[in-house]
Protein 1
Amino acid sequence: MQKWKTLSSEYMYKSPFGNHRKDCVELPDGHKINNYYVNEYDDWVNAVVLTKERKIVLVQQYRHAAGDCFLEIPAGKVEKGETYEEAILREVEEETGFTSEQRPIKLGEFFVNPATQTNKVISYLILDAFQEYTQALDPTEIIDIHIIDIDQMENLIATGKINQLFTVSAYYMVKSYLMSRLKEV
């Protein structure tokens, strides 16, 4: 399959949160789209944080675009100069105060919405986590910590109490990962 050709690009605006770009593109059959809009964002990281007691560490925070509070796994964007692993460890510590002596296990790297966005979400599993610090939140963050039994997750998802896609997909990746480890034993 052939890629589209970018004939021109123009930034509609730039901000610390992301950029909005207008491209003029030509499809392989010669058809042109003069106003194809692209959102440029930094990559995101998230993690299912699991304690030795099989508890999942969740955060609850208000999400203005959706106008509601969401129960989610810890997440955030990668800062300049950080590896994905460094970013998720920092985000988990800042948002929850949790850490682990084990390295995060990378579950996958996925484009968020490749039709209109440039970024990826990189999902991790952090095992044997324990709370060592207090939260170190940004001035605009108000985050409540919730610690639940892993067996409660599917009910929370099924009843819509957890309805954030990246949290749901990461949980099911962890479930698959843990099930495959049990088969190896």
Protein 2
Amino acid sequence: MFKPLIACIALATATLCASAVAQDYPSKPITIVVPFSPGGATDIMSRTLAERLNARLGKPVIVENKPGAGTMIASEYVAKAAPDGYTLLLAASSLGIAPALYDKVNYDPIKDFAPISQVASVVHVLSVHPSLPATNTSELIAWIKANPNIANYGSVGAGTSTHLEAELFNTMADTKMEHVPYKGSAPALIDLVGGNINVMFDAYASSKPFINDNKIRLLAVTTAKRSKLLPDVPTLAESGLPGYEAMPWLGLVAPANTPAAIVTQLHQELGEILQEPAVQDKFQSLGLEIIGSSPTEFAAFLQEDMAKWAKVVTESGAKAN
């Protein structure tokens, strides 16, 4: 008789406490954990958001870099943090990719996080060494099939979106390019320029200087539709590989069970920040296209994205190491 009453009292108390926490939020500094090293586009974007959130919320917003293990170190750290809105994760596509690639992942991308907003997509491009007789995707596919023993591609690391973008290409085009993983864009691009690798999928922001100097040849963007940043560059789908689509993304998530009122507040603040002209200009300079989706939309997208890349991993036999 008393157990149900005690349970009800406990539930009511927890609800009231969560409500009180949400009403006082924020009352102390907020930390945004970034799963990459300082200096890259994701880090710069995170610091831009932190600066604007600081100004709007009146409390310090700190960026903490925790790179490593295919972004799993940062993801696990935030998954186990207190669900109070003071520890957030600037998640990347690899949040959902990791469970398909690694034997052991100490978090569940769906169950252990509360989506706040899919902030932006990262414009990725397909480029080749200028010596290749390929000016579009169809010609590249033909060259790879004619040269299976020398065709290869570089990635910014095993298990990254650039790795799986190339494996999706291999699967859909029925080609076989050897994977050459690097530790970041810079060394991979140097080898692409030098002709040590033939092909590379990469963020436009890091490839842009080499494209502008004609040291590598830009063929296509990876998204389903042409990028607003590169309206004259065709997609892979329209230039030789129908149905191809890959959209690397960045988004903000909190630990699961973070009060809904805090999630809503953070989403609303982000939405207004992403409308600021200075922020939009900054994102564009970083090769990012703003999305700003709702928590519900982001949650649905994450499930779809996880299923897509799990299928790519299975069909291609891609390995994380």
Protein 3
Amino acid sequence: MPKILIIAGDATEDLEFFYPYQRMLEEGYETHVAAPSRKKLSFVTHDFVDGFDTYIERQGHSWPADLALADVEPTEYAALVLPGGRGPEYLRNDPDFRRVVTHFFDAAKPVAHICHAAIALAPLGVLKGRRTSAYPACAPDVEMAGGIFVDGAAVVDGNVVSARAWPDQPKWMRAFIGVLRKEAPAEG
């Protein structure tokens, strides 16, 4: 059975973690969660309030990481999912995060990323020349990294599928599962 890796950390967006996690399981993929350390992660939820210029943040659910990023052997995984939230702000500084994520892009394996995950990808150089979506406030990060920002719900560029934020998840995951079924079909 192909394995999917989801990288998350504390302050990962709750909905952007659980929706793809459950969809991967539903599709029949063995799904592992990696984080800077093997521990119970604390997620957050972001929402929009009338009259407020940006989003608000509340405490979300918790979920255990299956393994630390240092222990990830990326060649064992068929695809990668990167949720957003505030987690990417610090994940991008982790050398093992950079090692693991770069493998997926170098090997042209399927990658799904959403929202603020783009700010963790930008310093890696993997967005250069690539059409990608992200939370619109991240557009400058995508463009400074040489990417082409697209304000869309399910932007497909080769094996990479991106989206703006959790309201896009049905279209985002539908497109990503289409790529997975072609590149790394689940068994059974």
